[in-house]
């Protein structure tokens, strides 16, 4: 992947997609627009997405096994794991604090109580009422169940269901097994290394050949459907989420990369553009994984660290999602005429951190998990219906933030390990 050329092509495709999609949105309903959207934009976008998705499970599995074997020492792996989780939790808490603070200062819901009477609220209530709805089960996943579900009964089922946490657990066991068995498992190790080479070649090829056109299709389709029109009424809410995302993306990650990773943030962002744009067009942290792993490889992040940190991050670290959940909670409290107490604000922080961990890295799940946060402070989850219409555009942006946080973490831990190694060798 020649990052510079490819990034430029993808960014141009993205801008074209936004422009053409937004124009098409104005003429929504015309047969021409509907046909082009359905048979062209959506088809090329989905083919591109499927091609990338096709690689997610094998890439995650193989790269984690190799990562564990590369670290070579289960104890060291534990140390890296602890640092990773600490980074994830801290940045997510910072993210939600930025979102909450901006929303409390700028009051996006002030004087907008009429929104509660809209049809969107009653129709979302119906969705919530549906027994066994995906919403229900996702938001009501209890702590004990979450813990039990980390361990797959059937690893093949975990793979077919794309259950990332279970795949990670299984891969860690296989990796530890290969270390312990040693020379007798040399062949398995070799095969996985060669498989990894092949998978990475396919990622690069798909990106080089399809990324610009695929990105165009995905973004044009999303904007034809959503457009900017829906944003007007909820402009302030939209703007605050976006502002918080931008602050977190540049200020928090930028300074973490500079101060903790001792790397130029500009270089970091530049190398990561293909992943950022794919995150934006696909709205899925999981789908972006093969490409974001390839980008951090180019930055010189140690393989064994990236391949462990990034898949875990794509599954549990969602700073952008936490920002949206914080702003949305304050927004809904304001339109409902409720002032949250300090204790309730702390509850929002804690629950949003948990909810973003539980959010799967696929489109739209962050909004579903918002129900959990609203329930915790006694707000009506049906109010989610109000922001549903504009969520797609925010989902695209927050997904880019989500994956950048994972890459920043991988880079920082990798650089710290390198410094440790260098000090040892002196
Ligand atoms: N789409 C987001 C992601 O994949 C999750 C969400 O906030 O809905 O990271």
UniProtKB/TrEMBL annotation:
UniProt GO molecular function: symporter activity
Q: Which UniProt keywords apply?
A: Cell membrane, Membrane, Symport, Transmembrane, Transmembrane helix, Transport
Q: How does it sit in the membrane?
A: Multi-pass membrane protein
Listed transmembrane segments: 12-33, 39-72, 84-106, 164-186, 198-223, 235-260, 340-361, 367-390
Chief location: membrane
Q: Which GO terms describe its cellular component?
A: plasma membrane
Q: State if Membrane is listed as a keyword.
A: yes
A Gene Ontology biological process term = dicarboxylic acid transport
Database matches in Gene3D superfamilies:
Sodium:dicarboxylate symporter
What's this protein's name? Answer: Dicarboxylate/amino acid:cation symporter
Q: Where is the protein localized?
A: Cell membrane
């Amino acid at each position: 992947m020649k990052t510079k050329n490819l990034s430029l092509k993808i960014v141009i495709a993205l801008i074209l997609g936004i422009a053409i999609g937004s124009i098409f949105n104005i003429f929504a309903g015309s047969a021409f627009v509907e046909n082009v959207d359905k048979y062209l934009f959506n088809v090329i976008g989905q083919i591109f997405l499927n091609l990338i998705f096709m690689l997610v499970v094998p890439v995650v599995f193989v790269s984690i096994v190799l990562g564990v074997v590369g670290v070579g020492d289960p104890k060291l792996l534990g140390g890296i794991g602890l640092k990773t989780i600490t980074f994830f939790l801290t940045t997510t808490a910072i993210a939600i604090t930025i979102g909450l603070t901006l929303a409390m200062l700028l009051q996006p819901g002030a004087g907008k109580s009429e929104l509660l009477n809209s049809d969107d609220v009653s129709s979302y209530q119906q969705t919530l009422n549906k027994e066994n709805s995906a919403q229900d089960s996702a938001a009501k996943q209890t702590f004990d169940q979450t813990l039990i579900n980390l361990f797959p009964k059937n690893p093949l089922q975990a793979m077919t269901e794309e259950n990332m946490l279970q795949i990670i657990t299984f891969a860690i066991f296989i990796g530890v097994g290969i270390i312990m068995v040693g020379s007798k498992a040399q062949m398995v190790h070799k095969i996985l290394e060669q498989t990894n080479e092949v998978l990475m070649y396919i990622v690069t090829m798909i990106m080089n050949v399809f990324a610009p056109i695929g990105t165009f299709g995905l973004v044009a389709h999303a904007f034809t459907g959503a457009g900017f029109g829906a944003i007007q009424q909820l402009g302030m809410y939209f703007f605050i989420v976006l502002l918080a995302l931008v602050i977190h993306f540049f200020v928090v990650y930028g300074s973490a990369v500079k101060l903790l990773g001792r790397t130029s943030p500009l270089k970091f962002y530049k190398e990561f553009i293909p992943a950022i744009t794919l995150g934006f067009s696909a709205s899925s942290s999981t789908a972006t994984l093969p490409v974001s792993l390839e980008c951090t490889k180019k930055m010189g992040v140690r393989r064994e660290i990236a391949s462990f940190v990034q898949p875990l991050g794509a599954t549990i670290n969602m700073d952008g999602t936490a920002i949206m959940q914080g702003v949305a909670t304050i927004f809904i409290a304001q339109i409902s005429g409720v002032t949250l107490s300090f204790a309730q604000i702390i509850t929002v922080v804690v629950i949003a951190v948990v909810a973003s961990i539980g959010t799967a890295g696929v489109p739209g799940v962050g909004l579903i998990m918002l129900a959990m946060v609203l329930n915790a402070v006694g707000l009506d989850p049906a109010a989610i219906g109000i922001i549903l219409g504009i969520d797609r555009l925010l989902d695209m942006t927050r997904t880019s933030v989500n994956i950048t946080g994972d890459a920043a973490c991988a880079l920082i831990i990798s650089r710290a390990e390198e410094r440790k190694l260098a000090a040892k060798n002196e």
